[in-house]
TrEMBL record:
Domain HTH gntR-type: 9-81
Species of the source: Rothia santali
GO MF assignments: DNA binding; DNA-binding transcription factor activity
Protein name: GntR family transcriptional regulator
Keyword entries, A-Z: DNA-binding, Transcription, Transcription regulation
Pfam families (alphabetical): FCD, GntR
Domain of life from the UniProt record: Bacteria
Length: 241
């Protein structure tokens, strides 16, 4: 592909398109290393500056991790961390107030209630192992001396873990990105609560109800418990929207 291929495009988009094609065809896979900047520049007839711009975009997408220095560890390696890119994008658009927090909450309710119902349908050793880990998370959350930051982290991990048990990777990715996008708003809402310890205890009781419904393979109860849990916290922490 020569220089004529980049006419009418942002130069770095040629590299992005080529990487996409190679991933789709199987010529590139997670764990593979991209060709060097020099090799890509020569292949597409573009500058190394444009190649570096393409790599930065892929890095921001959570598709590559760039190494530093020289030798076998240098260069960009293909990875797959889509929730990181989605999370940052949603976070920035939330900050711009283009995406309302209430709509993010509604999206969580829709996706997570379905995911909880799907999780309740699973059984077997893998499901039991996941549910045991979820139970240990709740045991740690019971500690009244647990720092708030750790509480929020484990709270989110519990939700994502149960959602991923439902088996839908895309739903799990989207929910993880929503968590990353809204963590600042959750912390802000908590700081404004007059009795956070009481709210925290109520959240824990709701977590236990969710886990019990999933363990009991009660899809309707699991879906309902998750939806009520999410809505209750939003209405409590953000009473004005």
């Amino acid at each position: 592909m020569g220089k004529s291929a980049v006419i009418g495009n942002k130069t770095y988009e040629v590299v992005l398109s080529a990487i996409e094609t190679r991933l789709r065809s199987g010529d590139l896979s997670v764990g593979d290393r991209l060709p060097s900047e020099r090799a890509l520049a020569e292949e597409f007839g573009i500058s190394r500056t444009s190649v570096r711009e393409a790599i930065r975009v892929l890095d921001a997408m959570g598709l590559v991790r760039s190494g530093v220095g020289s030798g076998p560890a240098a260069g960009a390696v293909v990875i797959s961390e889509p929730s990181a890119a989605l999370g940052w994008g949603l976070r920035m658009h939330l900050a711009s107030r283009f995406l309302p927090v209430a709509d993010m909450v509604s999206t969580r309710v829709l996706l997570e209630s379905d995911a909880a119902a799907a999780a309740a349908a699973w059984s077997g050793e893998r499901a039991e192992a996941v549910l045991d880990r979820a139970g240990r998370i709740l045991d740690e959350l019971d500690d009244p001396g647990l720092p708030d930051e750790r509480f929020h982290e484990l709270d989110a991990r519990f939700h994502v873990m149960l959602s991923e048990l439902g088996g839908n990777v895309v739903v799990g990715t989207i929910l993880e990105s929503l968590r990353q996008a809204t963590v600042g708003y959750v912390q802000e809402g908590v700081r404004g609560l007059p009795d956070w310890p009481a709210v925290r205890a109520r959240l824990q009781a709701q977590h236990r109800d969710i886990l019990a419904a999933v363990r009991g393979h009660d899809a309707d109860a699991a879906s309902r418990a998750v939806a009520e849990h999410i809505r209750w916290f939003h209405e409590t922490a953000f009473p004005h929207g």
